[in-house]
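re: the backbone from monday

yeah here it is again, tokenized this time
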């Protein structure tokens, strides 16, 4: 037996520790949970491109009126796409380096959001929410870039279908709360 075959046998029999598997499960759970959260909140904000939705949302949260409607909708599109970027490449295995890029982009949004709320004197709930969302998203980005990257896989028809199905589910998850609120508020 040569050293290459011994090394291959050692890799084949390698089993990650329970702690390593548990941490991998934690990362997957946080990645999917926060990806869905980003998609839902982002889709809701993106729907504010419609003036009727914007006018319905304005009285519900005090800081909405301090941001121009188009900027608010743009932020929503960025959050939605960031959420998709945290989930779809992980599910399909195609271009998994997009996961930490999406996560770090969302963290940047949270840094700007926290600065915005601090400047407005809203240092309670809103800044705390920014820190929690940004912190967990940064953790997922770090894990997927350095500690637990996902191995890239080639694009296949099955992976493309899986990606479209997941995107459809994320759009529905974002659309349903907006539709429900608009349909039941009259």
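seq for it, each position gets an aa:
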């Amino acid at each position: 037996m040569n050293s290459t075959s011994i090394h291959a046998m050692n890799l084949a029999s390698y089993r990650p520790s329970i702690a390593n598997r548990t941490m991998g499960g934690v990362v997957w759970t946080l990645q999917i949970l926060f990806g869905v959260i980003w998609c839902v909140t982002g889709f809701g904000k993106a729907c504010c491109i419609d003036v009727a939705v914007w006018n319905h949302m304005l009285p519900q949260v005090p800081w909405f009126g301090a941001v121009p409607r188009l900027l608010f909708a743009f932020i929503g599109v960025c959050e939605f796409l960031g959420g998709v970027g945290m989930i779809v490449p992980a599910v399909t295995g195609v271009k998994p380096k997009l996961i930490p890029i999406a996560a770090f982009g969302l963290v940047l949004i949270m840094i700007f959001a926290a600065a915005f709320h601090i400047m407005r004197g809203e240092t309670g709930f809103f800044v705390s929410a920014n820190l929690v969302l940004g912190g967990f998203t940064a953790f997922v980005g770090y894990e997927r870039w350095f500690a637990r990257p996902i191995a890239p896989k080639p694009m296949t028809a099955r992976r493309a279908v899986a990606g479209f199905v997941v995107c459809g589910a994320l759009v529905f998850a974002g659309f349903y709360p907006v539709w429900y609120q608009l349909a039941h508020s009259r």
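The longest helix spans residues 18-46. The helical segments are 3-12, 18-46, 51-57, 69-92, 98-119, 125-147, 157-183.
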